[in-house]
Amino acid sequence: MPLNILATAVIEGTDKIPYWKEIRTIAPYVAGVTAVKVWSRGATNQWRRNMHGKVYIVTGATTQGMGTSVALEMAARGAQLIILVRRIDEWTTEWVEDLRSRSQNEMIYLEQCDLSDLYQVRKFATKWLDNKPARRLDGVVAMAGNVEPAWKGVRKASVDGLELQIATNFAGVFHLLDLLKPSFKAQPPDRDVRIIVTTCMLQALGNVQIDDPLWQGAKYDRPLKFFGSSKLQLSLCMLELQRRLLEVDEKKVDGRSGKNVTVTLVQPGIMRSTSLRRLISNGSVWILVFLYSFLLYPILWLLTKSGYRGSQSVLYALMTPEFEEINWKDDEVKYVVNCSISKFSRKEFADAQLQKKLYDNTSQKILEVERAMAIKRNVGKKKAASKK
């Protein structure tokens, strides 16, 4: 059919093509929409990697968007996944069974670990580290995140009393990776270990509080400021984490350089995710149904990515050979945007002293919160025992 139309246009002229005037009128608009959509969907990861036998800890995999797409691709390539979830219930059990079926990989496991609960994070990390010889770990893919409605002034707190976005997006992820440092360093020097942490362009709205990194004394005035700050502070701490992982014990003569463990920050772009839906709807079901689903969805479809498209940058960071030790050009954390290495824009990313102080203060503040909560739990246990 296309050849017949083309032949008619060449031999008899375009006027002989049925509905030519209508086609000529509509064609520029169709071409424009197509061009915008091709641009907004972003690049595709072109690298492929065999992951059979490799072991990864994954957070944020149950989103049914980017996280699920990443987990499915990793599992289909043979990776063993330890997926951290807030709770193990009927839904998560069915979800992991579906993932095993779709990927034809039975080596996918759920572990309860609510990142907003520092005690649960320590329990998981301690259990992981309490093994001799050290358990194999080829990387961590941290994609979990929480966004609170932007126009509601109600502060939600974690079990530790921290603002929920700070607790989930910053404190929990930081605590997990900080505690797992011995596991990263214990991996053989020829093992390519990758720590991939997703961030967001809204980190441009964030601030850094060196002396109060958990924002315990901050006024809850703008929820988006807390979200952006949680992402910004986590990104800055990841630069310091890379430096600490590069520190090598000179007494060990095993060819270890520390460069086999890489930290990568990934900005997947604006996606039609649960976070975006919550941001636009402000937590209202009615606004979600009418504003997001009906009025804005055509525009969002045109200008934003699907979860699958957003996953491409994470998969690029996971599979590209550019991050292998043999291909290292410098010791800096790489920032991946649209399946390519980009540059940081904020001045804080060039301040190593600020990053170090933020890392140390965050570690100290988390320890203080953990001690306070441990005392509280012990008091609760004694009261419960006395009642019995």
From TrEMBL:
This is LADA_0E03026g1_1. Coiled coil: none annotated. Gene3D superfamilies: NAD(P)-binding Rossmann-like Domain. Keywords: Membrane, Oxidoreductase, Transmembrane, Transmembrane helix. One of its GO terms (molecular function) is oxidoreductase activity. It comes from Lachancea dasiensis. The chain crosses the membrane at residues 283-303. InterPro entries: NAD(P)-bd_dom_sf, SDR_fam. It comes from the Eukaryota. It holds the Pfam family adh_short. Belongs to the short-chain dehydrogenases/reductases (SDR) family.
